Structure formats: structure tokens, C-alpha cells
Amino acid sequence: MRKTLLMIALALCGLWIMNPAHAQTTDKPFTFGLLLVGPYNDHGWSQAHYDAGLYVEKKVPGTKMIYIDKVNPADRPGVTIPQLVDDLVGKGAKLIIANSDDMKDGAREAAKLHPSTSFLHVSGDDVLTGKASKNLSNVMGRMEYGKMIAGFAAALTTQTGKIGYLGPLINEETRRLAVSAYLGARYAWENVLKKDPKTLSFQVTWIGFWFNIPGVTADPTQVAQNFFNTDTMW
Q1: What H or E segment, with its residue span, contains residue 167?
Q2: Please, which residues bridge with residue 16 across strands?
Q3: Is 79 helix (H, G, I), strand (E, B) or coil?
Q4: H helices within the chain, ranges in order?
Q5: In terms of Cα–Cα distance, which of 183, 151, 177 is closest to 164?
Q6: pTM to 2 decimals?
Q7: Is the dihedral of CA 80, 85, 90, 91 positive or negative?
Q8: Which site in 25, 171, 185, 186 is 20 to 30 Å from 154, CA atoms measured?
Q9: Residues 31 and 52 both lie in one domain
Q10: pLDDT tens-digit map of 188-203
Q11: Rounded to a whole number, what is the largest CA-CA distance in the chain?
Q12: Domain range spanning residue 152?
């Protein structure tokens, strides 16, 4: 979480400093808005972004943070990212940070609707694929390496040759992460343990979102229990 906080804080400071259009007078602060997929105080992903915003407010004179949290289908059914962005821009936000990969389509649409506002999408690949407008950027840590290490460790410790992977929703990012875990596991299985890769079983179960939404997603606790009940061990 500390690394995420530092990464977002640096990105915020960098965007504010490098764009001359964002220069503000002392009586008119530079306002930036956060769209958080979970609660601002979740002790995890969303709070890391919120704390980064507080850090920027403290360290960069003339900045002000506004935010909307619980931006997910359970807490805000039917509400779109462009609608929320309209609200933040209406309150003076000159920079919008969307903190979840599943916000990609909405962030891209909102960026096109507000060409004079800067957008920072945490995760996503619109810049890489060329879909991003000039006012939309992407930033993300290299999580694939952590997943590879987890898969590597799983292969070294499994007693059955079976590995279970609990995935959130299915998109480009989560596929990359699942594949990274598998590749790490296969490398350890084949090159360290010297075993036939055909004897390694890697089962992926997707629950439907980043966290449990009763009645919408599969229950991650039950999925994890099924791994154990079927002798599939992480």
C-alpha cells in the first residue's frame, strides 16, 4: 500500500507541475478529483489513493482534493463514470484520477467529453493501445512480477501438483496477472523441481468483480473453500 501511495502521489505532483495550464493563484486552488472503486477507508487499494491525495494536499501548496468513493455496481448501480466525472468537473476538478481497471471505458469516454481536463487512469492500457486522447494517461505498478513470484512459490509448496487461482473480474489486466502466476508456477515446476509440466494443474476461478458483491459475484470465501475441498491448493 505504501508503494501505491507513493506512486500516485508522485504522479499527481508530476502532472500538476509539468502542465503550465494548471498554474493557480493562491485564492484559486488546483482541484483534483478521485474516483475510488471501494471505500476511501478500506485499509487497502482505495485508501492508498485517498492517502496519496491527502499527501499531495499537504506537500503541494494550493491543491485541493475532492473524491467519490464506492464507485462499483453494488454501491452505485446504473451510475456511469462520465456522470461522476461531470460532477467532479462541475466542482472545479482540473485533474481526474480513476483508480480501477474496470473504469477504463468510462474514463476514456469522459476524457473525450472534457478535453480541457487531465485524466490519470490507474491501470488500463489506452495509451499503449493508442485509444487514449491526449488528456488521458495511464500509470500502474508492475504487478505481473509479484504474481509470477506467487505462482513460483505455489508450485514449490503444492503437495498435489494442483494450484488454485482466485480471480476477480475478467479483463485484459486480470488475464495478464493470472497468466503471470501460471508462468511463475510452471517455471518452478519444470526448471526447479524438474517435473513434467503436463502434471501441473492450474485452475482459475473468477468471482466477477474485485471484491464480493452479494447476489452479483461468486462468494470468494466459498471459492477458496472449494479449492481445499477438491485438493486444489494455492
Answers
A1: strand 162-167
A2: none
A3: coil
A4: 2-18, 45-59, 81-90, 104-113, 126-129, 143-157, 172-187, 220-229
A5: 151
A6: 0.80
A7: positive
A8: 171
A9: yes
A10: 999 999 999 999 999 9
A11: 68
A12: 143-229
